[in-house]
Amino acid sequence: MHQTFDAALGINLLHANQADADHNRAHFDEWEIICFNIMSSPGAGKTVLLERTLEALRDRLKIAVIEGDMTTELDADRLRQYGAPVIAINTGRSCHLDAKMVAGGIHRLKHEFNPAEFDLVLVENVGNLVCPAEFEVGEHAKVALLSITEGEDKPLKYPIMFQEADCLIITKMDLAPYLDIDIQRIEANIRQLNPHVTIIPISAKTGEGLEAWFKWVQSQIA
Ligand SMILES: Nc1nc2c(ncn2[C@@H]2O[C@H](COP(=O)(O)OP(=O)(O)O)[C@@H](O)[C@H]2O)c(=O)[nH]1
Ligand SMILES: [Mg+2]
Prior knowledge:
The chain is an alpha/beta fold. The chain has a single domain (2-221), classed as 3-Layer(aba) Sandwich (Rossmann fold), CATH 3.40.50.300. It is 43% helix and 18% strand. The protein has eight helices and seven strands. A seven-stranded parallel beta sheet has the order 3-2-4-1-5-6-7, sandwiched between helices. Helix 1 (2-30) packs parallel to helix 4 (99-112). The structure holds guanosine-5'-diphosphate and magnesium ion.
């Protein structure tokens, strides 16, 4: 009995969220903005990737960031140094951003800036390999990061995020010589779930792979 109730509640929640996400996407489409939902476990390198992206693309693209964190504006403050508008959303006890929270961010974007000027909105989701994958926020593409320090098996153990991703970034490649890790196995485990996903191995530290990521970003906007 409990299980049925919980399942129904979950489905209703996701339905309501989907409607809000579609509404957010309609705003982005009206302003000709592409939105990425950037997800990973805590510490995989989302904020560093955004820093490198703002640094490299700010002359070519007008970018805004919606920064989700349970508490603090630590990441938002890091990103503000690159001159882009950063809208911080604290989720409190929630382990993911949902479409309503992002709608609040879009509302602020609309009132504090001219949204039609932007090309790209990067949403950094709360660090979590499970919940963010279930709740769309109105994005056009999902970008998932997996650090090589997390182990080859993580795509198989947390499949939803890896199934849904449009772009899969394997991070911290510079650490490979110090780890007992099989990168080809990570890629094979990802491909087993999502055969056609774009996989980009990077190191934000050495710059390896970043050009390929910037090209992918620009291909989505074109
Ligand atoms: N060695 C190395 N460390 C990295 C790399 N990318 C991120 N880090 C480190 O990993 C930690 C977490 O990065 P952060 O971007 O805050 O991760 P987030 O929690 O996913 O936003 C920081 O100490 C980063 O300096 C990388 O490519 N190589
Ligand atoms: Mg972060």
